[in-house]
Amino acid sequence: MGRTFFVGGNWKCNGTSEEIKKIVATLNAGQVPSQDVVEVVVSPPFVFLPLVKNELRSDFHVAAQNCWVKKGGAFTGEVSADMLVNLGIPWVILGHSERRAILGESNEFVGDKVAYALSQGLKVIACVGETLEQRESGSTMDVVAAQTKAIAERVKDWSNVVVAYEPVWAIGTGKVASPAQAQEVHAELRKWLQANVSAEVAASTRIIYGGSVSGANCKELAGQPDVDGFLVGGASLKPEFIDIIKAAE
Ligand code: G3P
C-alpha cells in the first residue's frame, strides 16, 4: 500500500484566540487535494485544541503537541493521553526536539510516551533528529537510530505512527536540509526500520521532514522518494501552509 502524503502544522507556543481563529479561517478556505492524496493535521497549543477542533474543516485533523507519559493523576501541569482521547483529539506530537533539549526528555521517556499514547488509541507523530554538533561529528545516523530504537523497543504496531525527521539545526533557522540531505537520512531510517522492525513497517511507515520547510522549498523536498510529507513550524502559521499542502500533488 502506498504511503499517503502527510502534512503537519506545528503551531508551537503561538497565538491568541483571535489569531488562531484567523489561521483556521484561512485553512478552511484553502483549495487542497483530497484526503486520499494528503493527510493534514494541525497542532495548536493545548488551550486552543477545542476551539480548533470545533471550527476546523472536517478533512483536516488536530494534534496535541505533547501528552503525559501515563494515566493522569497527581501530575500538576500535565495533560494525559486519556484526556485527549476523551476530547476527540486523534493525534499527538511526541519527542519534539524542543522538548528533548529544553525540557530534558530522554529517548526512553519519549519511547514510553509514544507507547502509552498509542495504547490509548492516539496516533503519534514521533520526532527524531540530530544537532549541528552531532551532524558535524558524523553521528547523525547513530543519534536518529538511538531515538528510533527507544520507540521500537516499546511499540509493536506501527500503523498509527508517523516518524518526523527534524534536524535540530534546521528548525526555525531558515537553514533547510537540502533535498539530498533529507533523502539520505530518510532512506537510512527506512533501512533501520527494515532491519530492526520489519520490511512491512519500513515500507508503510511515513517518514516526514521538518525544519524550515516553506512554500519555496517544499516541492523539491517532496520529490524525494523517501520524503512522505512535512512537519511545518513557522510557515504553518501563514497562508503559505496551503502551498505546502499542495506539494503533495
Ligand atoms: O515541528 C516543526 C518544526 O520544529 C520545524 O519548525 O519553524 O523550522 O518549520 P520550522
Report what the structure shows:
It is a single chain. This protein is an alpha/beta fold and 249 residues long. It is built from eleven helices and eight strands. An eight-stranded parallel barrel has the order 1-2-3-4-5-6-7-8, surrounded by five helices. The chain is globular and about 45 Å long. It starts with a strand and ends with a helix. Bound molecules: SN-glycerol-3-phosphate. The site of SN-glycerol-3-phosphate (G3P) has 14 residues, from strand 8.
Heterogens = SN-glycerol-3-phosphate
Give the topology string: H per helix, E per strand. EHEHEHEHHEHHEHHEHEH
* Main sheet: strand order: 1-2-3-4-5-6-7-8
β-strand number: 8
Largest sheet at a glance? 8 strands, parallel, barrel
pLDDT < 50 stretches: none
Backbone shape: globular
What portion of residues belong to β-strands? 15-25%
**How would you classify the helix and strand content by structural class?**
alpha/beta
Average pLDDT figure:
97
Question: Strands, helices and their partners?
Answer:
Layout (H helix, E strand, L loop, with lengths): L4 E6 L6 H13 L8 E6 L5 H7 L4 E5 L16 H7 L3 E4 L2 H6 L4 H13 L3 E6 L3 H5 L3 H13 L8 E5 L13 H18 L2 H6 L1 E5 L7 H5 L6 E4 L7 H7 L3
Parallel strand pairs: 1-2, 1-8, 2-3, 3-4, 4-5, 5-6, 6-7, 7-8
Brief summary of the model shown:
With 249 residues, the chain is α/β, with parallel strands linked by helices. 40% of the residues lie in helices and 16% in strands.
